[in-house]
Write a structure and sequence with these properties.
Length: 348
Amino acid sequence: MEFDAVLLLSFGGPEGPQQVLPFLENVTRGRGIPPERLAEVAEHYLHFAGVSPINGINRALIERIRAELGARGKELPVYFGNRNWGPYVEDTVAAMRDDGVRRAAVFATSAWGGYSSCTQYLEDIARARRAVGDGAPELVKLRQFFDHPLFVEMFADAIGAAAATLPDGVRGDARLVFTAHSIPVRAASRCGPDLYRRQVGYASGLVAAAAGYADYDQVWQSRSGPPQVPWLEPDVADQLTALQAAGVPAVIVCPIGFVADHIEVVWDLDHELRQQAGAAGIAFARASTPNADPKFAALVVDLIDELRFGREPARVVGPAHPVSEYGFSVNAVPCSPDCNLDVPRSDS
């Protein structure tokens, strides 16, 4: 399968204080989130002058992808589109059509299966193609990559670098804690039995082993729903309280669920959780996400080359694979019979 372009498809984020509330309204439209909650979250962005790091990180990653493609002898234009803020994916796909793009590989900035991590990006692709209409390029979503060797390697290296920042006296007793974005329990079972939760747990085990840790915790963060709706638990803040009670002197927090240091990393972890750890007398280190690491760009081009050359997917395989009965979302093949049921295959 050949491509004449690449589209990096992401979540989006504000790039100025006047954009924060409109962005949050886009993200939460139809979910019944009260205005006071949006105002509270807006303060997190305003702490950083209303600028989310995510767009800048994605633009830097795009430059890395271009360089990696060139190094492999495949010069391709790399476009940038978002779901919730500019550049909107609909506008980007229209520009791709106008530039004569016929078929593009789509790299979505999520490693996981599940609705918000995979299917919703397929819906973005379908919506953008419908909006563009005749002449819209074929858009082929690349597979989930939570078990790609470079994904595992980047996080394992980041854990080692974070551990090195801890004081010598507590480093050997530090507890490794993996965290990912929580989702409603009901949503967790949409794409097979707890597909997202199992993938996160599996990847955490792969990364822990690669980093040399036999024991660790896997927790969740950044829930935003009403308290009566059950979400994946334990929460990372609750887990830190439990570690304090157990006398743990230091923690290394690895945000394995995120591929970029955006607001839910730099606020929820670097600000709130770090403050909590300091108040509890626990030394705190946070592992970096991939961001625009050259290895991340190499991972993206690896996924493209799997399709271009018909290669077997590169994967780290642990002792108990979490999704073997459902397979993987490769080129919009669903993870389970119902996961992507509403997404037209011709648009994926």
